[in-house]
Design goal:
alpha/beta, 8-stranded antiparallel β-sheet, 6-stranded antiparallel β-sheet, 19 helices, globular, binds 2-deoxy-2-amino glucitol-6-phosphate
Length: 608
């Protein structure tokens, strides 16, 4: 997500902000900028691309001043352009804002402000804040920001400066982290402790609903009703590298643990419970237009291809539309039959995978409507498809894809809901699905709370050289994904199979040395998979089973088990994959592998 840094004190602020932004680069971003207060008022410098590009601009501009804010942007609304980069300013050019999060009612606020004569310069939701603060300013910047935030729905971490109040930074938090750094005759604001470590280890964390006025020698924190809040300062213990990973040992673990939040961000503002459907504005397709497509092709690579397989099962079962899943690398060269009545959906975390991009170009060439389910805003696939659904999972730094996968499956579930309600699903069925999707972030948190148990289990498996992952129905692709996670970061040879396929060959591999992971939540094929577990046990295989809490038919059979909460069949992959991600992670750590940078692999395969 985005990074925020602010400073107020006696030192030249421009270079200090840029240094802080360098510390935030690990978070992933596509543009950056600073706003500085000085005798000439408010000076803004922004750049698309790397912080180094911004640094050149700042040095050339020779910006003076000792109060300022800076930002690295991870685009959510509006492509990565200089106009969309933060900070954003108001009409009068006297107020600058940097923001991390998503303003859900930005469109309505923008319309109202434009109606009052405000001119907008960007496509971002953030710019709404600058004009609303300007509209509400009545002598106190803190009051104007508080009044603005009363009108805002959504998540934010913001910092605000104004030439009307030099030497002051207003900071506020609701859902996106923000902290105050306390120095000697100087103070800081940041979204992440790593930006402060060069200057101070004494910090005050803001909590949701709090707003702070920060000056060089003082700070005041209140709630949005101006009621003073007493906060204790804490001392940062972590080293810089560890802070950069949010305190986790690896980015992969950080991203696994972020999934309640990333799934929440994927869902945010998109579920319509009354109508029992999903609002996917990026699709740019009316109901009538959507009904014109009589076939769907899902194309992707790797983990994204596993998400596509789940999407196929969902859409055929619930939307009753024929779906095919294609490896992008195969689709692009096999002269596929697609035309203007085919919806070709490319799924890609990076939005830069060469095979997936080429497959979509091929589909477009043949007249199909192309859609992208992509995480990186403004990426090549996102720019080239006819329309899309951003997954909003936030930057995924670890090479092994984790939170991107669960966000892809969640996005596919919402697309299936939208399509299903046009075809086969009643409003009551739709409402049940909306409620089940809404429960996923909390249920994911419950599964991840059991990470310590998975770590223990991984110790018993760490010396194995092979493993089989078996699943049925919606959890057959999860078996493939669990096997891919294990092999790509621990280099153990793991294979995923449909559980029933075992008797057609792989069962020859089963003996007391072959660990078999069953993904066996309570779903419509559960009884069948219980029989498969019995077949493995009859051949002395070691069984680790992922089961629904309260289920006991497999308990007596499995050697080890991990439980997940109950949900609708087609949503089980979002939860059943979590223990498998953790299992692969801990086995790889136990085996001393480079978890975030596994050998031979790249985060984004931009070559054939
Ligand atoms: C998944 O853990 C791998 N890193 C890899 O299979 C990845 O999913 C694949 O390369 C597709 O990447 P994309 O989603 O960015 O297109």
């Amino acid at each position: 997500m985005c990074g925020i840094i602010g400073y107020v004190g006696p030192r030249p602020v421009a270079s200090l902000l840029v240094d802080g932004l360098h510390r935030l680069e690990y978070r992933g971003y596509d543009s950056a900028g600073i706003a500085v207060l000085n005798s000439s008022g408010l000076v803004i410098e922004r750049a698309v691309g790397r912080v180094a590009d911004l640094e050149t601009g700042v040095r050339t501009a020779g910006i003076e001043g000792t109060t300022g804010i800076g930002h690295t942007r991870w685009a959510t609304h509006g492509a990565p352009t200089e106009a969309n980069a933060h900070p954003h300013i108001d009409c009068g050019g006297t107020i600058a804002v940097v923001h991390n999060g998503i303003i859900e009612n930005a469109d309505e606020l923008r319309e109202a402000l434009a109606g009052r004569g405000h001119t907008f310069r960007s496509e971002t939701d953030t710019e709404v804040l600058t004009h609303l603060i300007e509209q509400l300013y009545d002598g106190s910047l803190m009051d104007a920001v508080a009044a603005t935030l009363h009108q805002v729905d959504g998540a934010y971490g913001i910092a605000v400066v104004s030439s009307m109040e030099p030497g002051t930074i207003i900071a506020a938090r609701n859902g996106s982290p923000l902290l105050i750094g306390l120095g000697e005759g100087e103070n800081f604001v940041a979204s992440d402790a790593s930006a402060l470590l060069d200057h101070t280890r004494t910090v005050v964390y803001l909590d949701d609903g709090e707003i702070a006025q920060v000056r060089a020698d003082s700070y005041q924190i209140t709630d949005l009703r101006a009621v003073e809040v007493e906060k204790l300062a804490t001392t940062l213990e972590w080293d810089l590298a560890t802070i950069g990973r949010g305190g986790y040992a690896h980015f992969m673990l950080k991203e696994i643990m972020e999934q309640p939040e990333s799934i929440r961000n994927t869902i945010r503002g998109r579920l319509l419970e009354d109508q029992g459907t999903a609002r996917l504005n990026g699709l740019n397709l009316t109901d009538e237009e959507l009904l014109r497509y009589d076939r769907v092709v899902l194309t992707a690579c790797g983990t994204s291809w596993h998400a596509a397989l789940i999407g196929e099962y969902m859409m055929e079962e619930l939307a009753r539309i024929p779906v095919e899943v294609e490896y992008a690398s195969e689709f692009r060269y096999r002269s596929p039959v697609v035309d203007e009545s085919t919806l070709v959906i490319g799924i890609s975390q990076s939005g830069e995978t060469a095979d997936t991009l080429a497959a979509l170009r091929e589909a477009k060439q043949r007249g199909a409507r192309t859609v992208g389910i992509v995480n990186v805003v403004g990426s090549s696939i996102a720019r080239e498809v006819d329309s899309g659904i951003y997954t909003h999972a936030g930057p995924e730094i670890g090479v092994a894809s984790t939170k991107a996968f669960t966000s892809q499956v969640t996005a596919l579930a919402m697309l299936t809901l939208r399509l299903g309600r046009l075809r086969a699903l009643s409003v009551l069925q739709g409402r049940e699905i909306v409620q089940a999707i809404r429960r996923l972030p909390g249920q994911a948190a419950m599964v991840l709370d059991g990470a310590g148990r998975v770590a223990k289990l991984a110790e018993t498996f760490m010396r194995q050289q092979n493993a089989l992952y078996l699943g049925r129905g919606y959890n057959f692709p999860v078996a493939l994904e669990g096997a891919l996670k294990l092999k790509e970061i621990s280099y153990v040879h793991a294979e995923g199979y449909p559980a029933a396929e075992m008797k057609h060959g792989p069962i020859a591999l089963i003996d007391e040395n072959m660990p078999v992971v069953f993904i066996a939540p309570r779903d419509h094929v559960y009884q069948k998979i219980v029989s498969n577990v019995q077949e493995v046990k009859a051949r002395r295989g070691q069984v680790l089973a992922i089961i629904t809490e309260g289920e006991d038919r497999i308990l007596g059979l499995a050697d080890h088990f991990i439980t997940i909460p109950e949900t609708l069949d087609f949503l089980t992959p979002v939860l059943s994959v979590l223990p498998l991600q953790l299992f692969a992670y801990y086995v790889a750590v136990n085996r001393g592998c480079d978890v975030d940078r596994p050998r031979n692999l790249a985060k984004s395969v931009t070559v054939e």
